[in-house]
Input
Amino acid sequence: MSTLREQMLAELQLRGLTPKTQKIYLREVSNYAKHFNKSPEQLGEKELKEYLLYLLNKRKLSRGTYRFYYQGLKFLYKHTLKREEVVEKIRCPRGKKKLPVVLDLAEVKTLLSVMEKLKHRAILTITYSAGLRISETAHLKVSDIDSKRMMVRVQQGKGGKDRYTILSKTVLECLRQYWRQYRPKDWLFEGQKEGTHVCLSSIRQIFVEAKERAGITKPASPHTLRHSFATHLIEAGTSLHHVQLLLGHRSPTTTTVYLHVSKMNLAQVTSPLDSIPEEL
Output
């Protein structure tokens, strides 16, 4: 597998896949080989179908995880082994379309106000106010905060793209208080070890604790803050195009999901029950 692994790694790097994706694809190809105790070069369509059924029925992977692993094995046969015929007849099930959970403005206000530690409040406040993914929040640097232009620079977000998003006056004041107390040097939110940034698991735990204190029972996660940011902008009349730019979505289709959870398009709709005359 060593030579094959090197070949696949080279293909992954040349095609610009992220280090995380490279790691997962290589790991799943290794698991595939171990399952049959053979090199994938000796395996074909029959064995691949058997292994995919094993992932679904025995390991009971979620649809999203299964699709990700399938893509790794497809990459192996299509790009590394040049045996596209192995995968061309195998179809991957479509992912389920679920609407995002959204907090209303009152819930967001409560969530951000219940945290005692200034650093924790600053982390969640900028995550919501700038519509960031938690990985983007963790990787913020002090130099990314542009108070003159009231912008936040997001470096190498999802898909390796840079973008700018908005810096609210409220979060700027919060960050100034935070800076005076913590004096971060390079990373805006430093980790426990010197020279490191806060880890994603810490941000998740901060959110869980804040959610419990706020008494929020919705199945919300830190990413809910990003969903809420986008939805609240649309409800305030911000154009879909501008929301797309702030979120860093490649396609406007991705952003349109927030139209489905926004109250704006439903505010003028009256239930037919309320249209029935009282005398009937």
Notes: The domain at 2-86 is CATH 1.10.150.130 (DNA polymerase; domain 1).
